[in-house]
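Quick start: what a row looks like.
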Amino acid sequence: MTGSREFAPVVLFAYNRPDHLRRTVDSLRENSLAKGTDVIAFSDGAKKEGDAAAISAIRGYLKAVTGFRSIKVIERARNFGLSRSVVDGVTEVLRTYDRAIIVEDDLILSSVFLGYMNDALDRYAEVEQVMHISGYMYPIDATGLPETFVSRLASCWGWGTWRRAWLCFEPDVGRLITQFDAAAKFRFNVDGVFNFWEHMEQQQQGKIDSWAIRWYASTFLNGGLCLHPSISLVLNAGSDGSGTHSGKTKMFDGMVRQTAITEFSEDFNENVLALQRIKRFLDLTKGTLWKRMLKRLIRISGTK
């Protein structure tokens, strides 16, 4: 079924939630492309002694996983935290591969997720403006929207990129900040709807450690676009209170598409209707709880 086609590896990040990880792996395995896909799993080291047993269970489980072309488990001897884990892990994998699909251990993925990601990574491989493929979409009304569209926003729940785009990642938030003027800040904040700039300032002050806000800023400053599905292919199962930095909410949950995406946008202008609906959703997050949960969406925390 896969022929001689090479599929992007899945880079999987895990910490201390075995049950969540199993659900993630099970959902990946339901994809028809799973048997042709290499999985590279990064298991972070314990932040505190009480996490050691869960981490040991995760590593034992990962080594026994089947259903993929291969699985490689990289065990961190110490705790990197989520931010460094993602940056170092993606960088390491993209030294070998020219593209990758990145998944964390609290996601439940559509049965067509791998097909969509690989098709998009193939289709836009030479389109420099497209720097990020997102599997997640906010629970917006998809009526009247194309199956896929581009946006300035870069979602971090089930995503993919290429080596050529990741080379633009700037880890130094200070260097990023100096490149923004007032107009750029306004657009970065989705035309003033949500204050992502606050996260940049908090990163600079050492109050947070987020790879995602720096990646969004890096793609934004390079004129990059993210391809999104109009109906999400990802459900985050970590918003159940089990994560260190998250509370409980279903606000980010929505329908998960289970039919293949066949229409890929050739319009590299932001879809006006989609942007309006995203803005409307982001505006709802301004309450204290929802703002805290949105911070989790862009991975403010350095560890789960």
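That is the whole record. The longest helix spans residues 82-96. The chain has one domain: 10-297.
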